[in-house]
Amino acid sequence: MDTNRILLEILNRRGIKGEAEINEFLSRSPKTTYDPFLLSDMEEGVDLILNAVNNEKKICIYGDYDADGITSISILKTILDKLTDKAIYFIPDRFEDGYGLNKNCIQRLKNEGTDLIVTVDCGITAIDEVEFCKSIDMEIIITDHHNVEGCKPDCLVINPKRDDCKYPFKYLAGCGVAFKLFQGIQRRANLDRNIIREVLDIVAIGTVGDIMPLIDENRTLVKFGLYEINKNRRVGIKKLREKLMANKEMITSQDISFVFVPHLNAAGRIANAGMGVELFLTKDEKRAERIANELIELNKIRKEKQEELYSICREEYHRKYETKKFPIIKLRDAHEGITGIVAGKMKDYAKKPVAIVTEERHTGFIKGTSRSLEGIDIFNVLNDMKYFFEKFGGHKRACGFSMKAENYEDFVREIDKQMDQLSTDAFSEKLEYDLKLSIGEVELQLVKDLEILEPHGEGNPAPIFAFENCIVENITYIGQNDEHAKMSVIDEKNVAVNLKYNDVKMQKNIVNNPIDCIIFNVSDDVKKYIESHNKISIIGKCTINRWKNRENMQILVENVDIY
User: What is the C-alpha separation between 187 and 190, in angstroms, rounded?
Assistant: First the structure.
């Protein structure tokens, strides 16, 4: 198989062309990174922090309760702890304080003696809160990576999304911005450059966890971060890895997405996100093991609550909302920490944008979270009717909002009107693939060679291939409720050749190359199709299942078409 041709075709489809650009993308040691002082307000921000350190002022790192916020805090706390014993961190309570800067929390920190707040992964919309800081003689620096809508707060703001910021790469995660601040402090304070390596593992987890595009500088950060993770030097990550992936030889970006990040997020969804920070910062093995166990238990609780809410939402959807183009599922009560995940699952289930809303009886407000399809920019849709909202924010695929209960019915009617104006094409999610191959072309070495394209994630997904004329064999169902299908497929051409040779009774070894396929969460319709048709076409990812020194090729099937 011509691996070079396949690699080049995939790279070209992703806009990576020219020898220098291709070599950098595939390099084990990429060099794409930028001077932190290219970020607007970086120099002034570093000076303000070091001035606070020199004057023994109390500095509070104020962050978000998700994986990006947790990693951002951990990065900045790591370097400040090398300079002062007066650095603390604060994460608002999801249920009591809400997202981002909060005047009550600011006042509490002031009462506790805080002189300077440095936000991470939040604050770009906190215009009133920054003015409040000034009114109580509190200094503040905003570091964030979210879009700047209208005016920015009147303080130092380190954010590559600023219109006047000349930083070459605009898609750093919140932890990426915190890392650039880390670099700026390291340089200005003349600290050993080797300390940068200490936090690259955390930068990788936060960048992947916040679904940032794994291109340009992010690709460099995540590649080097994965090297650090796989050296097993951070005791907290080591303990979590031992408990969740003891037999996994090499951690990948997919492991970050599907294993590490859900456990970190579970802390902020169910309990206290500070547990994640402590997991990263502790050097005590027993403490790390205790935190890892707690995160695992919290994630189990999160899963249970999530499945319960998902079941309720499916029932409500079929009972009241099935005909809606944008179902807004109103519930009496729902755990705020998991409504976003369930809205995403309902979006996949209904193949429509979906919102889940609940009424806060003690405030008279409706709170909602929404998830959308690729073809419908839900931020633009909701932004056109933001006059309904008291709070609103998000991006094209996910938004959150709150409104007075009295505005809710009018809001739903307006949404229905907006959705009726959209074309049918907006609701169709077409699965794109990189190349069309035959089953006979898929060899173990090819799949190994394709691993050079990792790390995979947003902006650089794992390659997807289309396979036509596949003969299905040996269908079985696995999982607690037989929810996953496992089968083998053979190229139709190989089967035809075998029959031909058998007809003339010739002895010849013909390689059939059957390949295992797995379809996760297989629908009843697809079950019926693959059971009643022996010839299908599939779209999926070629992977290697490594277990106890054995390597087997398999295709993770994303879509099934029946002839």
Answer: 5
